[in-house]
Amino acid sequence: MGPMHIWALGVGIVLVGEFMGWNFTIAKGGSLGSIIACWVIGILYISLVMINTEIGSVIPEAGGQYAMAKYLLGPLAAFNIGLMLVFEYVMLEAADALVVGQILQSLHPDVQALPYIILSLLLLTYLNYRGVYATLTLNFFITAIAFVTIFVLLFGTQFYSPEHSLIQIKQLTDGLPYGWIGIVAAFQFGVWFYLGIEGTALAAEECRSTGRSLPIGAMVGLVTLLIGATTTWFVCSGLVGAEKLGESVFPLYDAALATGKPYVIIALFVGTILSCLASANGCINDSSRAWFAMSRDTLIPGVFAVTHPKYKTPYRAILFLLPISIAFGFTGLLDQVITFSILSALLVYVLTAYMMFKFRAMYPLGSIERGYTAPWHPIPAVVLLLLTLTTLVGMYFGYWINMVSGFMFYLLASVWFTMHRSKFVDTDTFIEAGAGCWPRPQGY
């Protein structure tokens, strides 16, 4: 894969967050709280991408943050991070399925969405089964089309003409109804604008040139998302009232309906469906790679470490995770599914910030060749840690039960690993293959 495919993987997974889910920031923090959360969380992800790209560019191995933890933190932390990555993407895929179902049902109450959703996910699973190159090439095109539909909506409002513009920001926004606490609470769903861009590191092993493809694809993808997120907030807030927008399942499509223009409505209907398909496609790719990597290292049973003899894909991991995602998707609880995905991601971010400090201590600049060097260290790691912890505080205001449940799940999983699975891990060979590429770390 090249930079185009990395862009397609990162943006393809995340773009659905601009078609649904982000608007819960308005319910939590009001219209201004929403856009502030969008920009502040954008800084979090700039820091995260810088860190991921530096470490990921010298670990050309499937697994992303899992592979980083494997080399920097050891088996127990690697197991937890791998599990968190799997659930981050499986839950995101479930949210995609949920939105596809609800937007199809909006056409007519008698529409049965389940067959279409299962058929779509089966098709995407088959593409992932056949190979990553064709999968992410397709993702490039459907992601690009979905992204363009946002700007079809923008120009359909004639925002550039004071006399004919449909945008009514002053009339439809509600400011900061809950003050600064609302802004902090909005951070949780502000993550949804960008959640998944860090998954670009999961494809490091399949890049033609990791040191080139990963930095370019990830950075261009993040710029794309920052532009798209700001445009999405502007258009939706100017077309749909804050109260309705804060609870919408498909805010961009509702904004298109508010224009009353058939070509805009059709474009956003297609864009919403394509963004969900692109996201689900990328989630299948990322979650299966993390599951495969854990199995290959014997952190979970080795049955999932088998690759297809012809297509060289982790087909057992791909097929195993599909029904789990579909099952969560049809709970019908969009915000709950999103919350567990976000919680899993935030826990990974906390550990990623710590890994950056440890990585620079183990391998100072000049000790190994880096494909990309994050500037201003340790500022990005400190910013990532502080903003992630603040977001977790904001999540506590509305979803403390979900947080406790999530922490208990990962705690019990850690106990299971320590008491049962850890005895199958050969710590002498756990990092043998990749460690041979690096000099012995300083102080170890």
TrEMBL record:
Q: Does the keyword Chloroplast apply?
A: no
Task: Name the membrane topology term.
Answer: Multi-pass membrane protein
Task: Give start and end of each Amino acid permease/ SLC12A domain.
Answer: 12-402
Q: Name one GO cellular component term.
A: membrane
Q: Which BP terms in the Gene Ontology apply to this protein?
A: transmembrane transport
Q: Which branch of life, at top level?
A: Bacteria
Q: Which UniProt keywords apply?
A: Membrane, Transmembrane, Transmembrane helix
| Protein localization | Membrane
TM region positions? 7-26, 32-51, 71-92, 112-129, 136-156, 176-195, 216-242, 262-284, 317-334, 340-357, 378-397, 403-419
Task: From the Swiss-Prot or TrEMBL record, give the protein name.
Answer: Transporter
Lineage at the top is: Bacteria, Bacillati, Bacillota, Clostridia, Eubacteriales
